[in-house]
Amino acid sequence: MTNETLQMTPQTLAQQCQYVSCTLDNGVAELILDRPGKHNAFDEVMISEMIQVLEYFAHHPQCQVLVVRANGKNFSAGADLNWMRKQATMDFEQNLCDANELAKLMSVLDKFPKPTIAKVQGAAFGGALGLICCCDIAIANERASFCLSEVKLGLIPAVISPYVTRTIGQRAARRYMLTAERFSVQKAIELQVIHEVSDDLDAAAEPIINALLANSPQGMAWAKSLLSTLESGVIDKATLDHTSERIASIRVSIEAQEGLNAFFEKRSPDWTISNSSTANSSIANSPVDKNNSAASAPGAK
């Protein structure tokens, strides 16, 4: 991400993109898949644009919540067929480069330092399911359907597999990655891919967004960072030391002091007084997080 890109307005950035769009209004940013004629199928251009928008909003001080949504009838059909046909003619190194970019997209979204919400309508196949599983919260409409269809084409859902398996579990992953069967939004609820079902996605998302906007930006960023260190499920001395260090660090931060004072003074906290550089420095200097290359963004995992 260049300084020139960071200095752009969201409108300018959107104008430079071919297959995605973006907006920012009252703290809520949107990354919009905007290739409805192709059912928002990914290709190398779209992947690059999504990464650019995500990195832009990760560093944008006015972005507090990110919504990932799509224009058209379907959220995304996954990989573009013409792109896959082109990949079949490329050598290993070229295919590895392509795969690395898709892996980067999933990682950047998964490690996005602010809360993320996916609004899903219609089909969400292959890589699209990976995007949903990388978001913190997901809402879908009644006609949403999901599929890990890669084996039908002689492929595997390799790049998205860590995020999908983390979400639905190893047992369910074995079924749906092997059968490539389509499953409904009700099954997606059962598998914890989707949190809520509503045919009015905007109305369903509104109270969630309002709740997120009312919370401490630093607190939410640190919560995401903390959760990423607990994914193994191991509770050992290192885990106990890390969690103790995290709460001790955040208690003495400016934003936490403001939140506690506001509670006892019976007023709304003014999160804007927080010195974000102080919070960022605390995360970057954490014994666990300091070697994480993503820690350059506030609250990054």
Biggest β-sheet: strands ordered side by side in the sheet: 1-2-3-4-6-9
The global form is globular
**Would you report the number of β strands?**
9
Helix proportion range: 40-55%
* Unreliable residue runs: 275-301
Tell me which CATH architecture of the largest domain applies here.
Alpha-Beta Complex
* Sheet having the most strands: 6 strands, mixed
Count of all domains = 2
CATH topology of the largest domain: 2-enoyl-CoA Hydratase, Chain A, domain 1
Order of helix and strand elements from N to C terminus: HHEEHEHHEEHEEHHEHEHHHHH
The Rg value, from CA coordinates, equals 20 Å
**For the terminal residues, how far apart are their CA atoms?**
18 Å
Structural class: alpha/beta
Report on this structure.
This protein has 2 domains: 210 residues, 2-enoyl-CoA Hydratase, Chain A, domain 1; 81 residues. Helices cover 49% and strands 12% of the residues. The protein contains 14 helices and 9 strands. The chain has a 6-stranded mixed beta sheet, sandwiched between helices. The protein has a 3-stranded mixed beta sheet with strand order 5-7-8. β1 and β2 form a beta hairpin. It is globular. It starts with a helix and ends in a 17-residue tail after the last helix.
